[in-house]
Amino acid sequence: MHIDATEKKWFYISLVVTIAIIAILTFSAISTNIHPPSSVEKVDSNRLHLDGEFKEDNLGVKKNADGSYTVTMVAARYGFYPQRIEVPINTPVKIRMASFDVLHGIHAPFTNFNTMVVPGYISEVNTSFTKTGEYPLFCNEFCGLGHDHMWSKLIVSEKGSN
Amino acid sequence: MKLLTIIFGSFLIITTVQADVSSLVAFDKDTRAIIKAGDALQGKEKAASMKCNKCHAENGQGDDDVSVAGHPATYIYKQLKDFQDGKRDGVMRKKVKQLTNQDMADFSAWYATLPFAKGTEGGGQLAIDLVYKGDPKRMLKPCSTCHGQNGEGGKYDSAAITGQNKEAFIEMMEAFKENDRTNDIYSRMRLIAKVLTEKEIQALAEYYGAPEEEEEE
Questions:
Q1: Homologous superfamily of B124-208
Q2: Gap between the Cα atoms of A114 and A73, Å rounded
Q3: What CA–CA distance (Å, rounded) separates B206 from B166?
């Protein structure tokens, strides 16, 4: 089989680049100790609403005894429930989420709140929001026809106002 | 006596625990298997013997009542089960009391095979915007995202809304709006109905509503 010399050159270049990328990723993963989450929490997405943490009445924002907050949310086509959550600024917030149906993602622009919500698993994000304001929460994993309409609101308020 | 107290106590605890759940139906493997085992012909016979046509008409489109034709089988099964579990109110509660899961799966299979009437697509630009664009400012999703591009129904608990009786459509939307109907898991429909105005509900009823039959003189 005849392969043009230029084509052969590009093939080798692509191969070297691919190997280099894999090598860099492997090196950085090992040297900086990056590994998949070990404490995976499973949940039955089909029965999410019936009992446990993601039962309808258990969703929302709760203040913990140490002053931090826990937010429990469900992603379901096509929305995040509850649709509006409010937390204070510069306060540790633990966000726990589960999907009721398919793969979703959630992300609040200009913050570091961004995670995938995989059916069958609980997603947990620990963060604190540093600027007050109203943020949209978008779905960033294509989940169906209504994906681009799937969003809700995060309000970061001054301390003591909520 | 002790045993009786324990049984009665457990029953009370179970009913209290379940009272705040909007629906006891979960579309897990077992439920999906039950619905899949539904026999449309059996459903047709059972519908005839229970005289479902009195309200829902022979073709399921319910001349003056709710149209049950052409919904996804999963949706019909869930509604029947919700009526039986006391999660949805209405005259149907009494009708479904004695039904088994197999009966409900048969009914679902039968009515899912019947064609729905096509909506008249009235309601003007207001309805078209709500159906295809929604209103992001009010976190209002377009109807078509869950109920299908033509209102033919979607996955699991998304009803076919095209060809619905106009009055029944408005009544259902009002019921969601006023929390009189609460069997939508995670309030997904209630949250939408609550932000819709009367005018918008009317426009959607005009859009999805079945053509009205002209009365013979």
A1: Cytochrome c-like domain (1.10.760.10)
A2: 14
A3: 7
Record: fold of B29-113: Cytochrome Bc1 Complex; Chain D, domain 2 (1.10.760)
Q: Which of B29, B146, B149 sits opposite A78 (nearest CB)?
A: B146
Rounded to whole angstroms, how far apart are CA atoms A82 and A60?
6
Cross-chain residue pair B144–A145, CB shorter than 8 Å: yes
Domains B29-113 and B124-208 agree in fold: yes
Peptide bond into A82 cis (omega under 30): yes
CATH number, residue A128:
2.60.40.420
* Structural domain spans, chain B: 29-113, 124-208
Return per-residue pLDDT of chain A as tens, 162 residues.
888 999 999 999 999 999 999 999 999 989 987 776 667 899 999 999 998 999 999 999 999 999 999 999 999 999 999 999 999 999 999 999 999 999 999 999 999 999 999 999 999 999 999 999 999 999 999 999 899 999 999 999 998 765
- Count of CB atoms situated within 10 Å of the CB of A87: 22
Substitution target from B78, B145, B156 for chain A, most A beta carbons within 10 A: B145
Nearest Cα residue to B138 out of B198, B207, B201, B191: B191
B136 reaches A (C-beta below 8 A) = yes
The pTM for the full model equals 0.83
According to DSSP, the β-strands at A69-76 and A60-63 are antiparallel
Give the DSSP H/E element, type plus range, for residue A3.
Answer: none
Q: Give the whole-angstrom CA distance, residue A161 versus residue B9.
A: 43
Q: Which two tokens stand for residue B96?
A: 């479904």
Number of CB atoms found within 10 A of residue B63's CB: 14
